[in-house]
Design goal:
The chain has about 325 residues and is an alpha/beta fold. The protein has helices at about 35, 45-65, 85-100, 110-115, 160-170, 180-185, 210-225, 235-260, 275-290, 295-300, 305-315; strands at about 1-5, 10-20, 25-30, 75-80, 105-110, 130-135, 140-145, 150-155, 265-270, 290-295. The protein binds 5'-O-[(R)-(carboxyoxy)(hydroxy)phosphoryl]adenosine and zinc ion. Belongs to the KAE1 / TsaD family.
Length: about 325
């Protein structure tokens, strides 16, 4: 069974072909980083236009690399939300055309559901139920995951997502876009314990997060130094910021495991590519005796292989979409 997956929810055009739910035949990602860099963030209109330009050649290349003709594809699945509406519409319209033209099923996938399922592309797969920590540019949330397509929200950010905070702090420090990877690289050469930053929400029960206050603490720290005519210790500040984010994520994830009496934690989303977060959770897993499942970085950031996994499980259940499939901007959990 071969499924072709399309992902265009944000600033990556991605196409993957998956065989029998786990064998990746192709997994292509065309990043728009270059296009948006000079604006210091994603410009939605430009993102949609780029998706439109890239999606057909990218899909053709995916088929070529897998040595397949379109007639050998059994179903087409596509992200229809959450994300940028203009971007989603391009992927969904394209997928509809393929499904209609080939008379094959069309399957709609939720982007967050797919992030949670990225771990199933790895050899070691978690047993259900597990707790998933999804940390991306648009979302930061903890879920109790009962099955491939059944998951319940335990808590989420009340303001900025973790990745968004990374990106905003990077912009503030004039480090460029996208900020997560840049901050993480600079942090490696800094001391995380020199600049005191808050650990938002750790003093509160529950599993919600908040990162905008942390971002403001960085702004205030920088402004204060500037007023005094002092230079900003970029490496130490990046390290301190990264450590603060990671500690909050770790503490809330551990609390969620304890509250649900679960021994399996899955990490997902773009920020899951962060080295400090991965190492900290590995260490915590050893200390507290829970099992940690980490998708490789290429499956953490946006990709279509994870969409294909989600699509596959919907295919098995006969959950098909009709040609009037719509898109949605905000998460519906
Ligand atoms: O999941 P993703 O690719 O797209 C969304 O669905 O949002 O996540 C992108 C986010 C961006 O905010 C980016 O800065 C962050 O993930 N990110 C990182 C790292 N790599 C990507 N954040 C921290 N450390 C990283 N190594
Ligand atoms: Zn994502």
């Amino acid at each position: 069974m071969k499924i072709l997956a399309i992902e265009t929810s944000c600033d990556e055009t991605a196409c993957a072909i998956l065989k029998d739910g786990e064998k990746i035949l192709t997994n292509l990602v065309a990043s728009q980083e270059e296009l948006h860099r000079r604006y210091g963030g994603i410009v939605p209109e430009l993102a949609s236009r780029k998706h439109m330009e890239v999606i057909l050649p990218l899909t053709q290349e995916a088929l070529e690399r897998a040595n397949l003709g379109l007639e050998e594809i059994d179903a087409v699945c596509v992200t229809n939300g959450p994300g940028l509406i203009g971007s989603l519409v391009i992927g969904v319209s394209f997928a509809k055309a393929l499904a209609y033209g080939r008379k094959i099923p069309l399957i709609a996938c939720d982007h967050i559901n797919a992030h949670i399922l990225a771990v199933f592309l790895e050899k070691e797969k978690p047993p259900f139920p597990f707790v998933a920590l999804v940390v991306s540019g648009g979302h930061t949330a903890l879920f109790w995951v009962k099955d491939y397509l059944e998951f319940y929200l335990l808590g989420q950010t009340r303001d900025d997502a973790a990745g968004e905070a990374f990106d905003k702090v990077a912009k503030l420090l004039g480090l460029g876009y996208p900020g997560g990877r840049i901050i993480s690289r600079l942090a490696e050469e800094g001391n995380p314990d020199l600049i005191p930053l808050p650990r938002p929400m750790l003093d509160k029960p529950g599993f919600d997060f908040s990162f905008s206050g942390l971002k403001t603490a960085v702004v205030n720290y920088v402004n204060d130094l500037k007023l005094k005519g002092l230079s900003v210790p970029i490496h130490d500040l990046c390290a301190a910021f990264e450590k603060a984010v990671v500690e909050v994520l770790k503490e809330k994830a551990v609390a969620a495991l304890l509250a649900t009496n679960c021994q399996h934690l899955v990490l997902a989303g773009g920020v899951a590519a962060n080295k400090r977060l991965r190492e900290t959770l590995k260490h915590e897993a050893q200390k507290r005796n829970f099992k940690l499942y980490l998708p490789s970085p290429e499956f953490c950031t946006d990709n279509a292989a994870m969409i294909a996994v989600c699509g596959y499980h919907k295919y098995l259940r006969g959950e098909f979409a009709s040609l009037d499939l719509d898109v949605y901007a905000r998460a519906n959990f």
